[in-house]
């Protein structure tokens, strides 16, 4: 039994020396400004989350993982178990927050009670014709060249120094369920894709992926859902035209199934566009996988060699 069960990822936080440069990149990436001041900027998608990306002025780095609890009562339960305070959350949407530190020193901000933002409208999309069904008749399919439309934050991947220690820490506090564990030997695993436990409610294949890799502890990437494949490809072309740094994509993952496209912000932090991912319930259990499957693709660009 875990202390609480979180219901989703809430946000990711960074520090950067130039907030305007970060804002320019995030605009090209498809995020919308959500407030801030001279020292902090917030950005949102089109969904109801008040913000999904925060940057504070400072030396470039990853600053925090935000998780969303179901209620302020859950925050009080978590705070009592951890011996910390429930604090006011000074950010868009307000609410309350409990701040913890995981085994590798990552700040984990568990939030609840935020006021949802009014969703932003999504552009209408013409139906797709396939060999199975023709839904679009006597009409063309066109869309404007523009950044991708980020709808929401979907998951975060963290490099850890001891996978089993980090796995135990996150599961004991937040109720994560393993979707796919990555084994490299019969009795040694280096990571796991973990989803939220929301009972019979389907949830993303992974909200958090912990990876014990050769690089040790460190931020790997954060992933943002876009509308569909056309939207993802518009985002790809827009970022390329703007001279942004591509990382990996386009392709379709094996584990999680999503179509992906990875880019780097001005300080090298990787952000992913994705669409068409898998959803599972608590009853769907867990699977074992391996490193070639983790690194492989169903189609598209193979994982580039890392220096």
Automatic annotation (TrEMBL):
The answer to whether the entry has keyword Metal-binding is yes
Where is the VOC domain positioned along the sequence? 8-113, 152-276
GO biological process per UniProt: L-methylmalonyl-CoA metabolic process
Note the Pfam families from the entry: Glyoxalase (PF00903)
Gene Ontology MF term list? metal ion binding; methylmalonyl-CoA epimerase activity
Going by the UniProt record, its keywords in alphabetical order are: Metal-binding
Q: What's the name of the protein?
A: Glyoxalase
Per the UniProt record, the source organism is: Glacieibacterium arshaanense
């Amino acid at each position: 039994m875990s202390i609480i069960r979180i219901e989703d990822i809430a946000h990711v936080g960074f520090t950067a020396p130039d907030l305007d440069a970060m804002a320019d990149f995030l605009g090209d990436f498809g995020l919308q400004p959500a407030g801030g001041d001279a020292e902090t900027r917030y950005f949102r998608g089109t969904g109801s989350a008040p913000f999904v990306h925060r940057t504070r002025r400072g030396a470039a780095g990853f600053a925090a993982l935000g998780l969303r609890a179901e209620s302020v009562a859950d925050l009080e339960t978590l705070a009592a178990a951890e011996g910390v305070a429930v604090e006011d959350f000074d950010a868009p949407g307000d609410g309350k927050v409990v701040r913890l530190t995981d085994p590798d020193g990552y700040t984990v901000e568990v939030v609840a009670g935020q006021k949802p933002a009014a969703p932003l409208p999504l552009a209408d999309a013409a139906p797709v014709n396939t060999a199975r069904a023709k839904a679009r008749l006597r009409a063309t399919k066109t869309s404007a060249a523009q950044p991708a439309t980020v709808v929401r934050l979907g998951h975060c991947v963290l490099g850890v120094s001891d996978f089993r220690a980090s796995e135990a820490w996150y599961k004991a506090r937040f109720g994560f369920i393993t979707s796919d564990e990555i084994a490299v030997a019969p009795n040694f695993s280096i990571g796991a894709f973990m989803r939220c436990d929301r009972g019979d409610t389907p949830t993303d294949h992974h909200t958090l992926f912990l990876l014990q890799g050769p690089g040790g502890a460190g931020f790997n990437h954060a992933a943002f859902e876009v509308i569909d494949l056309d939207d993802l490809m518009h985002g790809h072309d827009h970022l390329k035209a703007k001279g942004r740094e591509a990382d990996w994509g386009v392709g379709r993952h094996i584990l999680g199934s999503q179509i992906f496209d990875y880019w780097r912000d001005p300080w090298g932090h990787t952000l992913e566009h994705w669409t068409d991912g898998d959803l599972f319930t608590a009853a769907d259990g867990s699977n074992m996988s391996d490193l070639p499957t983790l690194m492989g693709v169903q189609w598209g660009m193979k994982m580039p060699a890392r220096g």
